[in-house]
Amino acid sequence: MKPRTIHPEGWAPALGYANGMLMPDGTLHIGGQIGWDKDKRFVEGGFVPQMEQALSNIAEIVRAAGGDVTDIGRLTWFVTDKATYLAHQREVGEAYRRVMGKHFPAMSLLVVKDLVEDEALIEIEATAYIAP
User: Fold this and answer.
1) Taking a C-beta distance cutoff of 8 angstroms, is the pair 87, 16 a contact?
2) How many Cα atoms within 13 Å fall on the side-chain side of residue 18?
3) How far apart are CA 48 and CA 46, in angstroms?
4) Where are the domains positioned within the chain?
5) Range 4-129 classified under CATH 3.30.1330.40
6) How many Cα atoms sit within 13 Å of 114 on the Cβ side?
7) How many H helices and E strands in the chain?
8) Which residue of 29, 36, 117, 130 is 20 to 30 Å from 14, comparing CA positions?
9) In whole angstroms, what is the distance from residue 128 CA to residue 116 CA?
10) Distance of CA 23 to the CA centre of its chain
11) C-alpha to C-alpha distance for 41 and 44, rounded to whole angstroms
12) pLDDT tens digits for 98-116?
């Protein structure tokens, strides 16, 4: 059995990458998601709306693979500005709970110099387990 590409229905094509790869053992690797919608348009409002959209994208990929957000075991956050993240922690927590509820997987946050898309302020990747 080979890995299966996961691409939510209605999303613009992923060119040169996969949004998700479901492995035969049930491990779902989710590529870095940024603050754009299914049509690759950035949400307005800055850091927190981009963060919430990136998490929503992850949730949608997990659902497309047959799982739920509670199947996510790891999130890695890449932010371009630590001060912005720290200044908005309350709003980040509220947005996080809107998408993830009270599910808190293992997480890391890395501060990076830049992201591939110039408008992106955050990128989040994830690993989930979807029982085969």
Assistant:
1) no
2) 14
3) 6
4) 4-129
5) yes
6) 3
7) 3, 6
8) 130
9) 24
10) 18
11) 9
12) 999 999 999 999 999 999 9
